[in-house]
Amino acid sequence: AVPFLIRLFPGLLTKFVFLNFLAFPFFVDLRRPELLLNNTISLYLVTEPDVTVGIWHTVPGSRGAEAWGKDQRWYEEALSDSHPVIIYLHGNGGTR
After folding, report:
1. Is residue 93 one of the residues assigned to a domain?
2. How many folded domains does the chain comprise?
3. 36 in any annotated domain
4. What is the pLDDT of residue 89?
């Protein structure tokens, strides 16, 4: 019965393989990382038409005092300075 249901509803396969509908930890708003992590903000990148990727920008602890109380513009400018950028790809858990 399962192959028949997948053939009829291919969207079910992506839901059950990738589990995008699950958000863990529960009841945490991951769109506001500054409530959970120091020196972190949430940004969004448009990679293709109709495709937006949410990212967190976290500056290292050594720049924590400098980042304290800064707005999104400061974080965006910090991405273009001479400091290295490390990209961490966490997978497909549905949350950042």
Report:
1. no
2. 1
3. yes
4. 72
Total-model pTM: 0.58
Give just the sign of the alpha carbon dihedral 23, 93, 15, 35: positive
**Can you give the residue range of the structural domain that contains 34?**
19-79
> What are the strands, taking DSSP E only, across 1-96?
40-48, 51-58
The pLDDT score that the predictor gives to residue 49 is: 92
Residues of the chain with pLDDT > 70, as a percent, come to 89
Is residue 13 predicted with pLDDT exceeding 80? no
CA nearest neighbour of 31 among 23, 20, 19, 41: 41
Judge residue 95's burial from the number of C-beta atoms within 10 Å of its C-beta, 0-12 exposed, 13-18 middle, 19 or more buried: middle
Average per-residue pLDDT for the chain: 80
- Output the six-digit token pair for 67: 């980042």
Query: 62 lies in a domain?
Result: yes
**19, two tokens:** 């589990």
